[in-house]
Amino acid sequence: MHRELITFEVGGQVFGLDIMAIREIRAWTPTTRLPRVPHYVAGVVNLRGTVLPVIDLAARLGWEPTEASPRHAIIVAQLGSQTCGLIVESVSDIVTLPGDALQPPPVTANDSIIAFLEGLAAIDDRMVMVLNLSALGDGGEFSEAA
């Protein structure tokens, strides 16, 4: 069975998300910071009258926080029962992933990103890390931000 992924860049690396989890892709909008939220919650934006928590995906993955600019984008995705935005550097394209193309991530001693991956896939000449959205939202921190 084939899957369609939207690919995008964070921290210079290529990631993918299942297209069915994505609600929309928005141009960068400055966020309103909130007190007492996890370090990777960049703040909230107004999404047609709804308060949308925005996650700095680079910070959530354990990398340096994003210094967002108008060149960045926000991917609005469904994270369990919560809709949230993910700050990404750029959105690339839609790719079709054959059912057997997804391989488990390698096990390394201290790579914190592995917990957030569903798997890895070689697409054309690049390695795409497929994110596990439910792992990104573990802990329910986003309901506090909304």
Describe the structure.
Strand 1 (3-10) and strand 2 (13-18) form a beta hairpin. Helices cover 9% and strands 47% of the residues. It has 146 residues and is mainly beta. The chain has a five-stranded mixed beta sheet. Strands 3-6-7-5-4 form a five-stranded mixed beta sheet. The protein has helices at residues 57-60, 133-136, 141-145; strands at 3-10, 13-18, 22-27, 41-47, 50-56, 73-79, 82-88, 90-97, 117-123, 126-131. The protein has a single domain (3-128), classed as Beta Barrel (OB fold (Dihydrolipoamide Acetyltransferase, E2P)). 29% of the residues are buried. The chain is built from three helices and ten strands, in the order E-E-E-E-E-H-E-E-E-E-E-H-H. It starts with a strand and ends with a helix.
The CATH topology comes to OB fold (Dihydrolipoamide Acetyltransferase, E2P)
Count of DSSP helices? Answer: 3
Rg for CA atoms: 15 Å
Integer count of domains: 1
**Biggest pleated-sheet summary:** 5 strands, mixed
H/E element sequence:
EEEEEHEEEEEHH
Mean pLDDT: 87
**Envelope shape:** globular
Secondary-structure arrangement, i.e. CATH architecture: Beta Barrel
